[in-house]
């Protein structure tokens, strides 16, 4: 019966529901999302954000936003603001619960002194190299530091001296006194505090000692009375240390629970490597639409709903796995198919002239904005004698199953008329197609067709006289292989896709897009979904390829 009860729940939900039933923490559910303010959030953080906020919401709980600002040399207020912007954009709100590990520096210092008094922490003068040598290996126990036997009074005096700035960087650290023979390397007298005479973006120069993540993290959870501290699987081996600190300090017993991190093909989430891409100019900043950052995906046109749906479909697992990027793109398509306005943009234009259509005449054709979303209305598009169509929609000698344009062939121009191809012209020197000459059936207009002519193909088009010049950024995968980090013998940059960005300055858009605003997303009929870039200006739209159509022409 118990298995039946929990079969629709993931393992974290099972833990939470058991805790609620047992009255643990009074039935409260309180989670937190603790980003380091030293970089931009990426696709992996999306999963963590969704899990923490969604689970708290499901069980009527709360989620704190807490910045782990324990390393002053890598922190930046730019990252703090971008992180907050990303979480809000995804649709979540921490209300008034915005905290920082630095809020607790005083309390953490007091906790550290408490451990010293209990004989569970000591000041070590060993160099980093010496501590590394004494650490041992996973199969061999470590060696105890010669400073491990210092008295409580001496440790308290030295630790206070560290705090007061009496010692230079790297000269001393505070370590927990646990077990140098533990099979878990994290339990071999881990460093709790180090000396850094660095300015902190929030506390200024008040402190010159800073807690390590493993010490600050669990205690910050405890101070905030976090009931379920959810983190990715790489912290599983840190959990015994997390529990040890809480137990020895006898403070609120927050519980750490690990889930599989988000790994997506053709993407990397290493901050160091992403920073290298930015610093070395492989991409145009952290918000480059090719980047796996939330800022990059937002600029590319990924809707927040699609990322939430993607995280939900991936689910919550106990083992790391790799998700195919096609699932993410499918989620993006599903949302944009429902939400985006249909427009016509010719990416590789060739001129088409309708010989029997009056010169100078302009006729308006109604285009449905989105057949998937009733009530979105229509917009008008000018039809004239001189048009543009896609170059690859014409073949001089088309095969039987080519249902587009060729000599003697009929096709319908979407929302307009059926045309018949009479002839074509090429450049005599290059042999390149220059113009297609057609006639049209005057009584074949969409919505009032009485011509009786049957056309198997339908093409998109743009009036030459009214076309808007636009720049299109066509994107491909950032890397040429699914996992650029898999081959340890090769540097990941060897797999950088130099063709991941192709600039198209030849495209012609319908006039409806002339004043497209940054962030607006459209379906370019028969091509894909495109987002107006942040650099778009009135009359000069720039579009980023969000994702191509799955196949064929979405209605």
Could you characterize what this model shows?
The chain is α/β, with parallel strands linked by helices and 555 residues long. The chain is built from 13 helices and 29 strands. The strands form eight sheets. It has a seven-stranded mixed beta sheet with strand order 21-18-19-20-14-17-22, with no helix packed on it. A six-stranded mixed beta sheet has the order 12-27-28-29-24-25, covered by helices on one side. A hairpin with a 4-residue loop joins strand 18 (410-413) and strand 19 (418-426). Mean pLDDT is 95; it is low at 551-555.
* CATH third-level topology of the largest domain: Rossmann fold
Please tell me the overall pLDDT: 95
The level 1 CATH classification of the largest domain is Alpha Beta
- Count of DSSP strands: 29
Q: Give the uncertain stretches in residue-range form.
A: 551-555
The main sheet orders its strands as: 21-18-19-20-14-17-22
- Figure out the total of helices: 13
Q: Identify the quaternary structure here.
A: single chain
Largest sheet data? 7 strands, mixed
State the domain count.
3
The CATH architecture category of the largest domain equals 3-Layer(aba) Sandwich
CATH H-level superfamily title of the largest domain? HUPs
Helix and strand content put the structural class at: alpha/beta
Percent of sequence in beta strands: 15-25%
Overall form? elongated
* Distance between the amino and carboxyl termini: 48 Å
- Helix percent band: 25-40%
